[in-house]
Structures are given as C-alpha cells and as structure tokens.
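Example (one chain per record):
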Amino acid sequence: MKIVSKFYGGMKYKTKLIFLYLCAISLPIFIGLIYIYSTLIDNARQPILDNIHQRLMQEKYNISEAVEVIHMFPKLLSTHTDINRFFSEHDYTDREIMELMTRRVLPTLRWFESNLQFGQQFRFITQKEGLPTQVFWEQGLNFDDFAWFSTAMENMDIRGLHGNGWHFDETCENRNTAHIGDFVFTWYYPLLIYNPQYSTLLEVTISADNLFTSVRYGTFAEDGYSFAITGEQLINTGSMPFEIQQWLSSESAYPYLQGWEPGNGFTQVNGMPFFISTIYMDELDLILGSMVPKEIIDAPLREANQVFYVILVGIVVAILAISYLVATILNRRIKTMLVTVKTIQQGDFTCKIPVLSGDEIDELATEINIMSGRIEELIGELITAENLQKESQLAALQSQIKPHFLFNTLESMKMSAELGETEHLSANLTSLGRIMRYALNSTNRLVSLYDEALNLSYYINIQNLLLDGNLNFQLNIPEEIQKEYQIPSLTLQPIIENSIQHGYRDRLGILQITLSYTLVTQGINLIITDNGSGMDKEKIKKLYQSFDEKQPQHNKIGRNGIGLWNVNYRLVMTYAKSSALQIQQHLSGGLTTIIYLPKQHEFSQ
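Predicted structure:
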C-alpha cells in the first residue's frame, strides 16, 4: 500500500486525471469488450455450422424425394393390366402368351426402363412356369434357398411392401470383401392381381452409388466429406480418404452414429480436427453425415478475431486520446484557478475565476469567488469591529471618568471617609479601580460571562454609592454557566446604564435589576430586567431602526442609544443575527433585554 501511495503521490495532477479516468471507465469497457467478443467471436462459427446442418437437411430431403419417385415407378408397374394378366392368368396358349409379351409387356417394360431417373434396376421373380426367357423376369425356383426370397414371399401373402434394407449385391454375396459401391437397397412389390399358384414379385434395386450421387458430388465437396452408414457398415463415402473411413468404422465414431437424434461435435482423426454432423433417415434406415475440417469451421472465427483486435486497438486509442484531452482541459482550468488563488493570497480580492459550464469545477470556482468576496467583506467588518471595540473601551472609560460621575463618586467616598466608614470606602475604591482597569485591559473581543458579570458587580457598587443604595442587582446565573459561555467585553454595562438612566429617572424607591438566563437550543438567553420607568414604544421603535443602520445616528438616538447600537453590532458581528438585542417594555413598567449566546463549540464551528 505504501508503494502504491508513493507511486500515486509522485504523479502529476494531469497524469492522475488520466489514470483515474482510465480506472473509472475500465469496468464498462471490460463489459463492452466481453459483449463484443461474445457477439463477434462466440457466434462467428455458428453461421457456417448452421449452413452445414441446412445442407445436410437438404440432402436428406433430396434423397427422400428420390425414394418417393422410386416408389412411384413400381406402383405403376405392379398395377399395370397387361403385366398382371401376363403373370397371373394361366389359360393362355403359348401363342397368346408370345403375342401378349411382344406386343404389350416388353414395350411397356422397355419404356419404364428407359425412363428411370436414378439408375435403379427392376425384375419380376415369378413362380409361373413356361414363360420365355427375358432379362425382365426370372423363375422363383432359382431363389428358394435365399432367406430374403422366403421373407419377401411371406410378406406378399399378407399383401405388404417388403424392403430388404442395405446389403451386398447378389453378384458379390460370396466375396469376402466388397466395394462400398456394391451396396444396394431392395424393395419387393406384389402384383395387383394375386394368384397363389403363380406368385410374382416386382423387385426394385437401387445402388448406393446411384442413390447418393447428389451427396458424393454435392455441396460438401469443397468443404469436407459426406458419408452414409447403416449399422456399422459404411455404404457411401464419396471421395473421403481411407483413414477417415477407418475412423467412421471404429468405436471412436460410435457416439455420433447412434440413435435417432442428430449428432454434432468436434473430433480428432489421426490428430486432425474435424466437425462431424449427422442425421437419421428412417425410410432407408441409415445415418447421413458430413465431416468438415475444423480449419474451415474456424475461418470465420479467425476473421472475427482480426476484426475484434482492430476494434480493441481502436477503442484503446480512442480512450487514451479522450483521457488526454479531458485531462488537458481540466488541468488548464485548474491552473487558471491556482493563478487566481495566488492573486487573492497577495491581497487582490477583486480577482475572479471565470465560470463557464456550471460543472463541479465551476461550482468550486464560484465558491472561491464567493469566498474571496466574503473575505473582503469580513476584513472590512473586522476593521469596523476593532474600531468599535476601541470606541467602546474609550466610551466605557470616559463614562467612568467624566467630570460629574467622577466628582460624585469621589465626593461620596469623601463623606464615607469623614464618617469613618473605612471598609465601605475601601470597597468603593477597589470597585472604581477594577472597572477602570477592565475597561482599559479588555482588548480581546470575547471574555467569559463570569468576568463580564464580575465587572458588572463593581459597576453596580459604584452606582449604588451614587444612588444612596437604591439600586438592587440580582445575578441568577450559576457560576458553571458563567464560565461555560463567552460574550464580547463591555456588553452588559451599557445595558445596565440604560436601565438606570431610563428606569430611575421618575422612580421612587429601589430600582431592581435582575440578570438571569434560560436554556435554549444550542445556547442560553441572557435576560436583563428592571422595574424602572422603561421606554415608550416610539423610542424602542427608533432604537430598533438604528440597529439596521451601518453607522449610529447621534442626533436621533442620543449617547445611550449609541452605546446600545455598538453592543448590538458587536453581538451580530461576533455570533449572528440571532444574537441581536431584543428590547421589550413590560405592561407593568420596566424593560426586558434579551441576548442569545451560543455554546462555545457551536460558535467555533
């Protein structure tokens, strides 16, 4: 992992963009390549395999049609009237038989012989004796010892067509070996007129060579080899090499040559791969098949592979080009952003990043533009706040040392000294010194509520001295709450001063001022209440209006109003609008001022 991190960390940003782009699109590309491969490669051989099967089915159909035509000839011949009279009736004289044979039978048989389409041969095998010798018939006595003749005669007795299946021609029956072309298929047809005394069969024989001529010299010649097999005996192989004939006769070919269902698959013959395809023909009880070299089957596959590689190279080149182009464009825009940010770092907040298309980079550019504008505003506000802080400190100090306040305070202390109230005098001197020191030393924007309340207690002590003890201040905030929250320095003193000025003016008796709190969401509300004369609604309205001004209006709100404007502005600048002063007049008299203080961790966020 460290090696990967080091390798990735050492890349340039443009290289990282290209790398990440390639990683991001690798999965869909991989899926797409699999789809292309499955479309081009996996199915490349299927058309030629289907073509082989279709050609095999066509050969089967052609042979089936040939068998149909072959059957039509004996059906016509076996029902011919003159033929039936010649072989079935027995009351003809020799002269009548000769006349019927020469004038009717032989011309008919010669005509049929001349119109045979598939080279089939025919003859009549009859038990009628005394017929003149001809090539078209033979005596049944010559075949009494042959099993096939006995079976054919038995089948004739039940008036059925009998097929002898594939067998060696009688002329080679006694040979130990025979050429494949010597195989014949024989059918035996009974005559229409059945005479048990003169039983006659029409024998029709078709050789494998003649029947499968279309297969042997057909559409498989340029691609492979065709064959026909019945049982374990090849009956037609065309121009097939001898070693393939040997394989077809071996046990290795057995799985492809059994059953009624077509067989297909790849096999090896002496190390050479072939595709074998077979179908069964029930009317001839044989399997018709073809064997095509695998290299011919794979020819479209090789072409498809070449096309796939060309497509693959094209995709890779296109992806690399697109990746480089995208990375270049993004890198150029990011460089523009970096130049602008460096300009902002040098203090030029007016510099803006161009926003073009509204994508994520433009969103970042927009945020940087907003940030630079906000920084410029905050710097201005910070300068204003610092100036106000200094003005607040100066105003607080001035309020302590203005002539009549300082004269009255010192005069009261003098009377305490003359009366010998040394402890009271010492406490008042301490309070005066500490509030003056707090006003001078509170340079930080925020102090703890505890320190602010402590300074307020000193201020109350001095005011009580001046008001002859008619001011009662009550602090109802636990110490742990005071230490938990912060407040801008010299915030509470102007509020208390406002309560004294407006509350005690027409007040008889003791002026009660209370500082309490309530817990609210994510903070507290400071509540300053008094039971003084308060302020009328018009003054409160003007005071709120002044809070909305960017600068205090001296001629409208007076000196105390300026102090409250200063407090409100600093609270809003420090926290938020939610901390603005809330001033309310009681129905029974007096004022309530509310300040919202958030928790320290909430404010820091």
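Caption: The longest strand covers residues 272-281.
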